[in-house]
Design brief:
Elements (H helix, E strand, L loop, with lengths): L1 E5 L5 E3 L8 H9 L3 E5 L4 E2 L1 H11 L3 H13 L4 E2 L5 E3 L13 E7 L3 E3 H13 L3 E7 L5 E8 L14 E6 L2 E4 L3 H12 L3 E3 L2 E4 L1 H9 L3 E5 L2 E2 L2 H11 L3 H13 L3 E4 L7 E4 L12 E7 L3 E3 H13 L3 E7 L3 E9 L2
Parallel strand pairs: 1-3, 7-9, 11-15, 19-21
Antiparallel strand pairs: 1-2, 3-4, 5-6, 6-7, 8-20, 9-10, 10-22, 11-12, 12-14, 13-14, 15-16, 17-18, 18-19, 21-22
Helix pairs in contact: 1-2, 1-3, 6-7
């Protein structure tokens, strides 16, 4: 049987071994009676005592042990490293190939800052690996998520030559003038708004974008509204309008088609292209947050589960000095 010593600094030295064991590896081996563990003064340490010592050294030891055990039982070789764990392709051992995925273990009770996700994703992208978020629920069950930066395929940006007059009626914007041309041009050509009794109705966000692009002018009660006044009206009507609109504009500038995602509990649903003759399903759902937002894991779980159940990818947009997009998808290992 393998013998090892745990030192006061938490390092586990294997007798005649070349590499230290992590605390999670040590727990796994003790649990299976594959190792005998001793203190640095030669006193034998059982599993219960080791867990007591290890938990003082690492407050997240329980979560890491659950994830490590689950991955090993699935047939993976796992080592500690830059993330909580380096995951090797099934059937490959360390030394036979490189780890391809880096795993972060987290409890469903832990807060998860947007900035933390972005930092880890970028760090792992820089070494060309994939980030896996391993979530441990209240009963010790496992759910795995792939986490990566969302990169959208640029689409075609429509150029409009005609300028339209739009009318603000309470919180709705209508194009009464040249309705047929507006429907052909803006709706069928750019997928803005929706037909409403033979005219075109625009959402406030769509109207703000078209106004900013000088494609429409907006009047109310016969008087033209300035862009500043209209944006102020939108801010009074919609919570977090400025932040949400910034993401809408960014996506539209990429050439994507952006429509409301209300039916799916998100801010937007995204199409890469549209064809009125063969109406496609949207590919992404996008929800907008400030960059300093702190997620609750159950909220991520609900959003991703719903998106995946309707064959869409869930994108979380973080708004700060720039807009960052994170794609989180539930996976099976």
């Amino acid at each position: 049987m393998m013998k090892a010593t745990i030192r006061k600094d938490g390092k586990v030295k294997v007798e005649d071994g070349l590499e230290d064991l992590s605390l999670a590896e040590t727990f796994f081996l003790l649990e299976r009676e594959k190792i005998e563990l001793f203190s640095d003064v030669g006193r034998k340490i059982n599993l219960e005592k080791f867990f007591e010592i290890g938990s003082r050294l690492d407050s997240r030891l329980e979560i890491k042990c659950i994830v490590y055990r689950d991955l090993r039982e699935r047939g993976y070789h796992v080592k500690h490293g830059l993330a909580d764990f380096r995951l090797y392709p099934r059937g490959k051992k360390p030394g036979e190939g490189a780890a391809t995925r880096y795993v972060y273990a987290i409890s469903e009770r832990e807060p998860l800052p947007m900035k933390y996700i972005l930092q880890k994703v970028k760090m792992i992208n820089n070494i060309r690996k994939t980030m896996i978020l391993a979530v441990v629920d209240e009963e010790g069950g496992m759910t795995y998520y792939s986490v990566k930066e969302a990169i959208f395929k640029p689409g075609e940006r429509k150029v409009f030559e005609t300028k339209y007059i739009a009318h603000l009626v309470k919180d709705n914007v209508f194009l009464w003038d040249s309705p047929e041309r507006a429907l052909n041009d803006l709706f069928e050509g750019g997928f803005y708004g929706k037909p409403f009794g033979g005219i075109l109705q625009l959402s406030l966000i769509e109207s703000a974008y078209l106004l900013e692009k000088n494609i429409i002018r907006i009047v109310k009660g016969g008087e033209e509204i300035s862009i500043d006044d209209f944006f102020a009206h939108c801010s009074d009507t919609m919570e977090n309008f400025s932040m949400i609109y910034g993401v809408y504009r960014d996506l539209r500038e990429t050439g994507l088609i952006v429509k409301t995602g209300f039916k799916f509990g998100s801010h937007f649903r995204i199409y890469e292209k549209m064809d009125l003759m063969a109406f496609p399903h949207s590919r992404y759902l996008v929800h907008v947050f400030p960059i300093d937002h702190v997620f609750k894991i159950p909220d991520i779980s609900r959003a991703v589960r719903l998106a995946n159940s309707v064959k869409k990818r869930m994108i979380f947009a973080g708004v700060g000095d720039a807009i960052e997009y994170i794609d989180i998808t539930r996976i099976k290992l």
